[in-house]
Amino acid sequence: MAAADLRGGVLEVTARLGPVAEEVLTPPVELAPDLLTRARVSVALAPRAAVAAARLVEDATLPVTATLRLTLRAVAPRLPLATTVDPHEIAVRLAARFGAQAALTVEDLAGGLGELLAGSLTPSAPGPGDEAGGPVTDEARGRALALRLKEILARPEVSAQVSAQVSVQGRYLLRHPDEVLPGQERVDLAVPAAVLVDRVVTLDPFAAARAVSGGTLDRHVRRVTTPPLPAGHVVVEFAANLPEPVAGLLALLADLRIPPAPPLRPQPVTAGAALDGPGRTGTAGVVLAAGEEPIGEARLRALLDLPGGPAEVAGPWRPAADRHVLLGPADFPLPLTVVRAPAELTRLATAEVVTADGRVTARLDGATPMTAVPLRPEDLPARVVIRPTGPGRVIELPLGGRDRLDLNLVTLPGYGAQRATIACRKPPVRVEWRAEGADDPPRSVRLDRDRPAAEIRWIATSPFQPGLVWRVADGDQAGPWSAPVAPAERLVIVVDEAKPIVVNGVEMRPDDAEPGVWTYLPPGPFLELGQDGRPAIGLIEAGATAFLQVTSRLDLPEAARAALLGELRRRASGEPERVRPAPVAVRRVALEARPPDGAWAPVAEGTSSGLPPWTTALAATLDPGQAAAVKAALSGTRGRLRLVGELDAPAGPEIRVRDVADLLEPTR
Q1: Are 249 and 304 spatial neighbours (Cβ–Cβ below 8 Å)?
Q2: How far apart are alpha carbons 161 and 28 in whole angstroms?
Q3: Which of 280, 282, 512, 573 fits 273 for a cystine, CB–CB 3.0-4.6 Å?
């Protein structure tokens, strides 16, 4: 017996992970003849294959199979037959039968060639030493043809993986007919010929090693774990934990800066990432020194939709000493106020966040019940305007500097128990009343000389219709219903209200809650008077720079109020004791200038002191056009400088405009 002439081989190792599925631990490894005489092969495993191999080595829970297909040099069997073939024609006919580039075993190829060439074989004289006699079987004839023609018509399959349906001789892939040249090939099966044959060897390498080593692989297996080598390439993950959605936010960015670290890294490092999507996350890669951690500072940048167009604002830098940087609401470039409206409110109304200049920055409704509103200093004081979708009043709430505002339906002003006093000046009279928006039958109260006033109570189930309506009913005759009367802290409804008295353009009415007290609506804005009795307005010029200071008030001066009381005592019945301004809320006081050939524009603006006489101190640095307008107004030119006051009066919002030249005229 002689040693086989090995011409090459292919090694593949697989592990069965389930009843059917197999995991290829190594891709097919082609082995040269010199490697086939050795028992040592090194391969690099993929991560999934490495995990499976580690489990096999440690606990042997998975069956593993090593498949080695050997290619040997041999002598083809000789038969007394011969034929002449066209290899290209044979390739075309095999492709038509099995399919183009089909994978076949030697048996499949032998069967196909035996059928295709059976009619073209002719007897041939046996060679010396051939055995004589005996019929030639179809199987022997086809196998002899396949061994001699397979190198022309097919190539070995690269993979050595086999199954129970594949012969141990391996498989071959048919060559494309275009790869096979046409011509005439003489095939004499009686002439000796050297051919290549395949043999497949399968075994469980771990089971065999354990059997040889007494049940353990410790003598043959060594696990070496190579630690990762620091290369300086670091991925930093950013995340922004913000209330969503943020009104007017077009894009959110995160920045990272790391100072130099000489001598290994003399230059600074900067990076950034866009925080997109609902998760507000992003990543950025930085290159540092080997083994260095990203220790530096991080911040948020926001692209906001502002009145003048998109603008970018940046938040403060804060320390960052980790590969995971979490930024919160305190890192946002502008203060965020979260406004939330529950479903029971959005079914009845919509809410808008309105800045000091009247710009709507956010809207809450059924589709957007919550939003985070970024507010600039110039946006303050902002307010929330709640408008009912049906009949009812508009509710305004100050937003202030709070971090969160929950617009709960039952906590809005006007909801719940209310009370008022109904009074008359000339009893007797019967008054009917009912809650605003209610369909209940009206209730009534009778006022006479012994009881000229009575207290009534009701429940307001909607903050948008919290008041009541009333009418005077004499016998079967009833007057028209009044307009809804909004509740107040001390609401007094006089059904036969006295006529007002007008003194110097100021309308005064008796206060039914306080006998002897008359009220008037403050008629300002005016210029506040200084201690010298002159208006508090001053223009300071220093070269090309001009600085303006103005103090305004909404109420009358003390002398003007005393004059009102004196005239009132002469004209009113009874004995008026004092006069006072009605309560109002000043939302904005502005000083506006109009340069020649220009439009009115604010120079300075602010809010009042909140209490009578509602003073406001304004200051501004003027450009040349504004300074010229102020000088013209101070010299008596009208239409160049004016005071604008926006206030909420008992009868509703009002806007007052006063020309500064008119306010200065009595002092000139």
Answers
A1: yes
A2: 8
A3: 282
- Residue 605 and residue 552 in contact, taking contact as beta carbons nearer than 8 Å: no
H/E stretch holding 641? strand 641-649
What gap in Å lies between CA 494 and CA 18, rounded to an integer? Answer: 92
User: Using CA of residue 490, residue 494, residue 500, residue 501, what is the dihedral sign?
Assistant: negative
Residue 651's contacts (CB-CB under 8 Å, 6 or more residues apart) are none
Least confident of 121-130, 597-606, 622-631: 121-130
pLDDT for position 236: 96
Distances (CA, A) of 540 to 531, 600, 631: 19, 22, 11
- How far lies 439's CA from each of 414, 465, 477, in Å? 19, 13, 20
Task: Give pLDDT tens digits for 111-124.
Answer: 888 888 877 888 87
547/501 Cα distance (integer angstroms) = 43
CA distance 57 to 223: 9
Count the alpha carbons within 13 Å of 663 in the hemisphere toward its beta carbon.
Answer: 29
Dihedral of alpha carbons 557, 559, 564, 565, sign: positive
Looking at residue 164, its pLDDT comes to 36
Angle at 214 between CA 213 and CA 219, to 5 degrees: 35
Residue 183 scores a pLDDT above 90? no
Rounded to whole angstroms, how far apart are CA atoms 659 and 641?
Answer: 6
| Residues forming a β-bridge with 590 | 605, 644
Per-residue exposure over 61-97, b if at least 16 CB sit within 10 Å of its own CB, e if not: ebebbbbbbbbeeeebebbbbbbebebbebbebbbee
DSSP for 163-200? Answer: -TTS-TT-EEEEPPGGGSPPS-EEEETTS--EEEEEEE
Residue 41, pLDDT > 70, answer no
Q: Report the chain's C-alpha Rg in angstroms.
A: 50
Cα separation of 644 and 550, whole Å? 13
Q: Using DSSP bridges, classify how beta strands 154-156 and 171-174 pair: parallel, antiparallel or unpaired.
A: antiparallel
Q: Pairing between strand 517-520 and 578-581?
A: parallel
DSSP assigned state of 511:
-
